[in-house]
Fold this protein.
Amino acid sequence: MTRRPYVATSHESFSHDSIDSLGYDWERMADPGTHPRYPLKVYLPRTTEDVVAAILEAKELGQDLKIRSKGHSSNDLVLADRGAVLCTQKMDRILGLDEGSRTVRVQAGAITANLDSWLAQRGYGLPVIGDHNDITAGGFASIGGVGPASLRYGMFVDNVHDLEYVTWDGDVRRCGRAERRDEFLRLLAGTGQYGVITEMTLEVVQVDKYGEVLANNRSLYRNFDHFLEESARFLSDPGDVRLSRGFWLDLGGGKLKVGQLSLYGQAEQSIANTARNKVSYRYLHSLGYVAGRLPRRVDAVVKLLGVAGMVYIPTRASIKNVETFSDKVLDASVGDPTRWFIALVPSEVYPVLFPKLYALFTEYRKRYRCFTFLSFYIKAIRSDYLTNGGPHRYYTELILLPGAKPEKLTPELLESLVSRIDDLCIEHGAYRYMHTKTVKDPERRRKIDPNTQYAAVQRDSLVGGEV
């Protein structure tokens, strides 16, 4: 049983670990003036037995109990206004690495970035890891989990081997790919609906994320139709690309419209390429670190340099620098408030759905003046979880990330926008990432929640008498 020897840090301008943070979720990115909703009671379990005790106590007292790790959610999942919250951040132990099976056992509150660094010292790494350095293993498994390597390794949940969890009745249960498989699949991407994940066994790969340098086949686009055509071709068949990310940026008012695809493949492991990676990313990370900490006019220049670094992203990069690009260079907590919506789109409908979503956001920006810039980020996904045993096809993570004016984007206007996003996803057979804002209607949510397909199977098996 080993504690992590390394603590990863993010560039975000606030702490995820303070008492104050318990009153907020990711909504603060969209409205820095949002009012906190503090819990009356906080449980800080360190063991599975502690989780059982907390659940039974909350049940006896008739309290609603919310589960949170680091609060990377904006769909009202982790806030317990005057209620009780169970925070998993003290359940952060690394329980052991099995090199024979290439798996690692961890508690659910283990931060994936710290775990990845611990594995790196032993020659391994997580196949899929998120952009932010504050994401926990349990939190990532509860929503799905996407990263730049998802085109090869699927979602984070595709790399979970088995798990332990506590039901809302206080029962400890274990399930996995070979044991209670239907139950296992229901828990994954279940946003905490069915209990509290306490421990997990995760697959690892042998890799040198800090040392191996990849070549970035970078393409820039000024025409949206051209970007759409080229990105759709890649997203439907990524080929031998190792890591990928892309974006379309529209600053509005004729200022700038630009798209980019970064497709990472093998590169010569030379002194020159290693130096190019280190020098370029030290520069970019320094911009990310000081952004938001400087006098206003100087900070504006730094942000422009950051945008330039995003567009003209280096052509040589270590795997770790690709994985943490957003966290280290493009910190969402600096600059304009940003709204955050994510769709998981079958790649064959991406060329149709993306322009419709772009048009929707453009309409709201023009009509209501509620957005400053519009940005859209894409990653390719090859996921057994999403295809659910059907014909294998690629999905696209499409992140809709506009700069917001909180005073213009009223709750009513936001609700109408979310409803139209979800309608378009339902129309085209796309899912939503359920920790970003969605409609509340259960019937409509059922059509956009990837977990629903597994919950229905589990419900049917329970009716049939299986345990």
Q: What stands out?
A: The two ends are 31 Å apart (CA to CA).
